[in-house]
Amino acid sequence: MSKDLKKRFDRIVEILIQLQSKRIVKAKELSARFEVSLRTIYRDIKSLEQAGVPIIGEAGAGYSLVEGYKLPPVIFTKEEAMSFVAAEKLTQKFLDKSISDHFTTAMYKVKAVLKINDKDIVAAIENQIVMNKSNYDIFNHEVPHAFTTFFESIANRIQIKLCYRGVSDDLPQTRIIEPIGLFHESGFWYIAAYCLNREAYRQFRADRIHAIALTSISYSKEHISIGDFLAGRTENIQRTHVRVAVDKDIAMHLQWERSFYGFISQEEKTTHVEMTFETRSIDEFARWYMMFADKAVILEPDILKQSVRTLINKSLKKINS
Fold first, then answer.
1. How much is the pTM?
2. Which positions fall inside the HTH deoR-type domain (predicted)?
C-alpha cells in the first residue's frame, strides 16, 4: 500500500469513528480536523457509502449514521492507551468527585478492549504518574456532583437552584441560574450563567457553591454562547498601559504569573527584559510588582510609580511602629 493510500485509508476510518461519536457531523468539522479540502471529505464520505456504511445526510447539511448501526469495539493504539492514563490522573485532580468516578468507570471499559501488551504498558505507567494535591480546594467537597448537575442542566436547558456564597456575602444566598457553560481560569472552575435574581449574566466559582439542585423549570429564554460571554467580560474593562524593565535573572521566573496581570509582550535588551502589560488594576499590579521591585524599574505610567511609593510608605510605617 502506498503512503498516500494508507493516509487516506486511515482518514476514512477516523471519519467513521467520528460519525459514531456525534448525532451530526459537518463536513467543515472533518475538513478542519484532517486539514484537507471539503471536496476530499465529500469523496471520503462517498467511499464509506459505497462500502455499505448507512450514512444519512448531504454536503452542507451534515452527516449521521442510521440509528442502531455500530462497529465492533475500536482498537486503541499504544499511544492512545497511554494518553488515557494521563487524562485519568488530570480528571482526578481537576474535576469533581462525581465526574472523576464516572471517568474511572469508563477507563475500565477502555482497558477491557486493549491488547494484552498495551494493558501491560498502561499498568506499568499508571502508578508512576502522580498529581500532587493542590494546597487549596477547587470544589466544595460537600457538593461532589456539581459538574454532573451543570452538564445535565445545559444539555436539557433546565434551571438550577444554587446556594452560593459570593466573595462579599456573609452567608450563602439562594440563586436561580441558567448555565451557558463552564471555564477554567486562574486555577479555579467557573460557571457562566444567566442569574434570574440579578437579571444579568454572571460567573460563579465552583468552590463557593454550598448546595445545588436541578429544578423542573425550563430556561426562560435563548442565551448567548460561552464564547460571547467570555469576550464580553473584557470589552467593558478599562485597562492601563504598563511598561517595566526587569533584570534578566528574575524575568524568567515571572513567566507563569505575568499572564494574570495583563502581559502583552516582552523585548530582550542587553541587561534586562522590557515587559509590556495592559493591566485592569494598578493597585493589584503594584502589589505584584513589589515582589521583585529591587530587580526592576517602572518605565510607565507615573500612577504605578505613585501606587508603589504609597505601598512602601505604608509598609515602612508598620515596620517602624
1. 0.67
2. 8-63
Cα–Cα distances in angstroms (integers) from residue 38 to residues 10, 107, 173, in the given order = 17, 34, 51
- What count of residues does the chain have? 321
pLDDT digits (tens, 9 = 90+) for 164-174: 999 888 999 99
Q: Assess whether pLDDT exceeds 60 at residue 1.
A: no
For strand 272-279 and strand 188-195, is the pairing parallel, antiparallel, or unpaired? Answer: unpaired
Q: How far apart are CA 191 and CA 197, in angstroms?
A: 16
- Interatomic CA distance for residues 106 and 117, integer angstroms: 20
Query: Distance between CA atoms of 321 and 317, rounded to whole angstroms?
Result: 6
Q: What is the C-alpha separation between 128 and 89, in angstroms, rounded? A: 11
Give the residue carrying C-alpha cell 467593558: 236
Strand partners, 202: 193
What distance lies between CA 113 and its chain's CA centroid?
A: 29
Cell of 42: 465529500
